Amino acid sequence: MTFQPVDLKLVDPSRLRIAWSDGEVREYSVRELRDQCPCATCREKRTAPPAPATELLVLSTAETQPLRITSMHPTGRYAYSIHFSDGHDTGIYTLELLRELGSTVTA
């Protein structure tokens, strides 16, 4: 059985809280969600060898700002699409992945 989110809210600009239909409440840092993006490009970047130490990383203006979730929409009944302030919006976060990420909030 797949548990469904019953309440989603940003507790502050850097943390998302999801209450699940089985009573579990999990909290996610926006950075963790972005770093664990399941899209093909991000998966490839995570498994690629590190860039040479002499390579200069160029950041966009959006990437220099604090990371935020700009929108989050259900994708069918099995996932959410999360749009981030750095412009990234291609990850589809399944409910199973969301249950694996984050940490349980105790009352």
Account of the protein in words:
- With 107 residues, the chain is an alpha+beta fold.
- It has a single domain (5-45, 63-104), classed as NE0471 N-terminal domain-like.
- It has helices spanning 30-35, 40-47, 95-100; strands at 5-12, 15-20, 25-29, 69-75, 79-84, 92-94, 103-104.
- A hairpin with a 2-residue loop joins β1 and β2 (15-20).
- The model has no long low-confidence stretch (mean pLDDT 91).
Key attributes of the depicted protein:
3-stranded antiparallel beta sheet, 4-stranded antiparallel beta sheet, alpha+beta, NE0471 N-terminal domain-like, 107 residues
How confident overall, as mean pLDDT? 91
User: Span between N and C termini?
Assistant: 25 Å
Q: What is the C-alpha radius of gyration, as a whole number of Å?
A: 15 Å
The parts where pLDDT drops under 50 for at least 5 residues are none
Number of strands: 7
The fold-level CATH name is NE0471 N-terminal domain-like
Question: What letter string, H or E per element, gives the SSE order?
Answer: EEEHHEEEHE
Topology:
Layout: E1 5-12, E2 15-20, E3 25-29, H1 30-35, H2 40-47, E4 69-75, E5 79-84, E6 92-94, H3 95-100, E7 103-104
Antiparallel strand pairs: 1-2, 2-3, 3-7, 4-5, 5-6
Summarize the entry for a quick read:
It is built from 3 helices and 7 strands, in the order βββααβββαβ.
